[in-house]
Protein: Xylose isomerase
Organism: Albibacterium profundi
Amino acid sequence: MSNVLIGNQEFFKGIGKIGYEGPESDNPLAYRWYDENRVIQGKTMKEHLRFAVAYWHSFNANGSDPFGGPTLFFPWDKNADVIQRAKDKMDAAFEFFTKIGLPYYCFHDVDVVDYGNDVAENEKRLATLVEYAKEKQAASGMKLLWGTANLFSHERYMNGAATNPDFQVLTHAAAQIKAALDATIALGGENYVFWGGREGYMSLLNTNMKREKENLAKILHLAKDYARSQGFKGTFFIEPKPCEPTKHQYDYDASTVLGFLREFDLMDDFKLNLEVNHATLAGHTFQHELQVAADAGLLGSIDANRGDYQNGWDTDQFPNNINEVAECMLIILEAGGFAGGGINFDAKIRRNSTDPADLFYAHIGGADTFARALVIADNILQNSDYKAIRSERYSSYDSGKGKEFRDGKLDLQALRDIAAASGEPEVRSGKQEFLENLINRYI
């Protein structure tokens, strides 16, 4: 590995390039299922899954939580100079990217370099690190899946960013979005994400919801128009989340976002980036959110993680439930894959996972879970009765009077007359248990 990738020191000592060794391997620092060159349905695993490493959780999350301070103390976070500290962190990041062997990464602006309160200085800092990242991308072959701006951590955004009641706060949000778009474009980013971390309300008593949503839509249009004017050809993603930190966020779930995009004429440029833990916080399964997006033709990308079943908040753990992920991969495969995006590991190692190798174990496990689920889902689609059972369940709409109804040729009176003439319908099984067993059989 060249010095361009890891700077002047090696941060993850004793760990080499992670390779594929197959299901029989006992090596915890090897892939057992993620064989990037394995071809499934005409595409390699690498092309299907498009894995990305999240810059924020992997190189910034220090283990702190609402009840305690940091437990993870990074060797790349020690230099007092803000630019050198950011470069050290980028050296560590690209060393990890190269060793873990996943093709993409994602970032927020403030993940890359610390921001202050001076707009021009922040832009200068980010531009400096963008030039540094260009060198590292060229040397490593890494690509940027998407960029975004952090419009929720700074205290100025306590009442929202684009939805803030104070116009001056909105202008700061716009400045950050512009700089993050410029950085994404400069680095060849394939997409750009909007996550409304505080775009919502704590109480309707002091909130003009209509105005806030209108202002959010205006900012999205302005950002989209600016990026297109700068030559950006990628896709814009909205990432739904129902609550936390606000009581209610305007991008509550996939259906809510679809309604918002339709209302404000944003359907042509925006798709959805869906997160597993956000789906469960909204009271849905991740499969449900995927299906809603897929049915609308807006399944853009996913943030892969999981929550804790006994804990009702956003724990961002690495995915490891093969049954659930296999069901998700069925939907993704049937939808034809992602529209521009991929699988970003928006997950963090636990507060007590303090060894450098733990970050590798986490990503290896997540990648293997999705790779194995891809194999399982492909086998189910190719070799089982899964699709035939579902098709048969709705076959009464494919011919005869059912097809006439679908084609809009029957009115309410006609439907009534059919019901009266045909009598009580035959009881037909939904075969739920059979299908659940089928998933387990292919696992």
Q: What stands out?
A: Confidence is low (pLDDT under 50) at residues 1-6.
